[in-house]
Amino acid sequence: MFLHRFEDILWKVMPDSKSGILVCELRNKQERQVYYAVGSLLKGKMDILPSEEIPAWWVGLLEIFGQVALLHGYEKEGLPNHKGVYAIDLLTGKLLWSREDAVMAQTFVEGIQLEDGQVLNWENGQQTDKEVSIPLQEVRDEIRHFPSLHLESSAIFDNWKQKLEQVQGITPVYQMACWENEHQAYLQLYQGEIGKDLKSSWMSWDKANKQWEILGEAACEKLMLDSFFVEGDFLFYSPDSHTVVWQQL
């Protein structure tokens, strides 16, 4: 299991299990700066990319493909409409190319399709005549799985709650998220109240030995229900807004 805690806010976690890369988008609100940490899924080491050539604040991570990270800009500060496309080399942090007036429509294995129909090459941003046919989202969907959510009123919630009674001090509230395979079950659950003393707990259940293992606990500001997923052979979760954890299943 690998754990990285960052000083700045962890805004987005994006792995590419096929290439073995993990990219984390970090934001420092005081300095109005966006950073990207890149690491190896197998080795666990993460490095902050040099940020001199990365647009300062109004950008966001869209997609990664191979050694390229694709960022989007915004039409206006404070508005959600995207405008501007930037490609960053994940090895060096250098800006490979940019189209500040472009609006991206969809990403494909073969290239990046803009709203006006142009298809751009991933590495150099030049227009290509390639036919696009394999959306990256479909590739992701084949290997990425999100947990099922269970409310306190559900039978599944009650079933897990009974199993959790053997773990001292664990009382799930609101809802829990659960992902399981034939050998293990992984749960994300909460104690306390939002805005007061909320704490997240990450646990695994060994189905054969009927034993719990607490993987991590942390204070958190909110329910982080989108921070728990499986891609390929890796499980990812963020116990709080500064930490990412992953392990090979």
Biggest sheet overview: 5 strands, antiparallel
β-strand amount: over 45%
User: What are the low-pLDDT stretches, counting only 5+ consecutive residues below 50?
Assistant: none
Give a count of the beta strands, DSSP E runs of length 2 or more.
Answer: 21
Distance N to C terminus: 10 Å
Q: What is the number of helical segments per DSSP (H or I, 4+ residues)?
A: 2
Helix content: under 10%
Average residue-wise pLDDT? 86
Order of helices and strands: EEEEEEEEEEEEHEEHEEEEEEE
What does this structure look like?
The protein is mostly beta strands and 249 residues long. Helix content is 7%, strand content 47%. The strands form five sheets. It has a five-stranded antiparallel β-sheet with strand order 1-21-20-19-13. The chain has a five-stranded antiparallel β-sheet with strand order 14-15-16-17-18. It has a four-stranded antiparallel β-sheet with strand order 2-3-4-5, with no helix packed on it. The model has no long low-confidence stretch (mean pLDDT 86).
Q: Helices, strands, pairings?
A:
Elements (H helix, E strand, L loop, with lengths): L1 E4 L3 E8 L4 E8 L4 E8 L5 E3 L10 E7 L2 E7 L7 E8 L5 E5 L4 E4 L4 E3 L4 E2 L15 H8 E2 L2 E4 L3 H10 L10 E6 L3 E8 L7 E8 L4 E9 L9 E3 L2 E4 L5 E6 L1
Antiparallel strand pairs: 1-21, 2-3, 3-4, 4-5, 6-7, 7-8, 8-9, 10-11, 11-12, 13-19, 14-15, 15-16, 16-17, 17-18, 19-20, 20-21
